[in-house]
Structure to design on (340 residues):
């Protein structure tokens, strides 16, 4: 089996700190190679992989503002599809734009839909519905207008996350600083319960950070530590009393939720999007309607069995399981038993 893996080029594969799509692409790629699959990774030239790396864009455009995203995305995607006949399957991790090339090649295309950035992109997905194969990352993120070959939950490399049985006395926000992710609401929870809050992640909305986050950052009760990558990520997640995931949108998945539980840390999350699929309510964390209920949930996290949080992730959200699920998808397509 020969797979052409098409990654985004906003960040390196794997990303240095932020880049969830690129990270999942890396985990799938490396897992496939470990199973003896012939994989060519189409990514930025500075990417690190055990697969065959094919690149035209030298660096991530989010790290080099001199690169025009539209220009390099066109060059990058067209390069992959110009080599389509070399592969049994092209696995698109790049969102909707590569779909516009899929009708020009005979090679089957699998697209992992990492979420819908806007309803405005749906016409593209509708046009290529049933012509290509869509994979959702949660049942909650499925669009009723589309047909899917499978839901494949994201998985993480469990060895990268150290279990922490005895947490420190702080709460954690881990994610991009944006209204969608509820950074401000996490601050409100921490203030109400009188616990320190550590905020980690990239600032995606400068105005939101300036007006809704920065005024509360004092370096003691509320700390902002910026984006955090391995190995500090595991330490920060594991030592938190709880992860606060006060989202204001329908989260397609939520990698930080799974990462926290892998370290033994329970999650308090707003019940939106995929949260009910990731969290066993009352057992690995709490699903709440908003920050007011989250305040009450903080008092209950002491009763959560942190070892069970780890076991929950080991059973459901490992990168090995994710790779196995994608192999099942590929085989369905190649044997003509799509079942869509």
């Amino acid at each position: 089996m020969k797979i052409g893996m098409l990654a985004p080029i906003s960040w390196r594969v794997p990303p240095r700190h932020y880049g969830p799509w690129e990270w999942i692409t890396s985990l799938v790629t490396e897992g496939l190679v470990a199973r003896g699959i012939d994989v060519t990774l189409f990514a930025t030239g500075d990417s690190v992989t055990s697969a065959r790396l094919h690149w035209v864009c030298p660096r991530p455009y989010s790290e080099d503002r001199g690169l025009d995203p539209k220009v390099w995305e066109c060059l990058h995607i067209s390069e992959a599809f110009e080599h389509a006949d070399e592969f049994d399957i092209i696995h698109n991790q790049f969102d909707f734009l590569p779909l516009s090339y899929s009708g020009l090649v005979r090679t089957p295309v699998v697209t992992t839909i990492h979420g819908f950035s806007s309803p405005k992109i749906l016409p593209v997905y509708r046009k290529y519905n049933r012509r290509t194969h869509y994979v959702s990352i949660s049942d909650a993120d499925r669009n009723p207008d589309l047909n899917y070959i499978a839901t494949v939950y994201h998985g993480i490399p469990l060895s990268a996350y150290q279990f922490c049985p005895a947490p420190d006395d702080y709460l954690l926000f881990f994610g991009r600083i944006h209204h969608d992710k509820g950074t401000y609401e996490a601050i409100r929870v921490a203030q109400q319960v009188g616990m320190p809050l550590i905020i980690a992640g990239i600032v995606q909305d400068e105005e939101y950070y300036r007006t809704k986050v920065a005024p509360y950052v004092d370096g003691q009760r509320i700390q902002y530590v910026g984006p955090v990558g391995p190995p500090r990520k595991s330490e920060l997640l594991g030592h938190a009393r709880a992860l606060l995931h006060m989202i204001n949108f329908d989260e397609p998945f939520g990698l930080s939720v799974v990462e926290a539980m892998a370290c033994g840390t329970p999650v308090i999350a707003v019940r939106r999007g995929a949260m009910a699929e990731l969290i066993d309510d009352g057992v690995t964390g709490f699903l709440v309607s908003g920050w007011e209920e989250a305040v009450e949930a903080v008092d209950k996290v002491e009763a959560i069995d942190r070892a069970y949080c780890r076991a929950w992730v080991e059973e459901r959200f490992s990168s090995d399981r994710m790779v196995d699920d994608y192999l099942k998808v590929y085989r369905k397509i190649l044997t003509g038993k799509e079942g869509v």
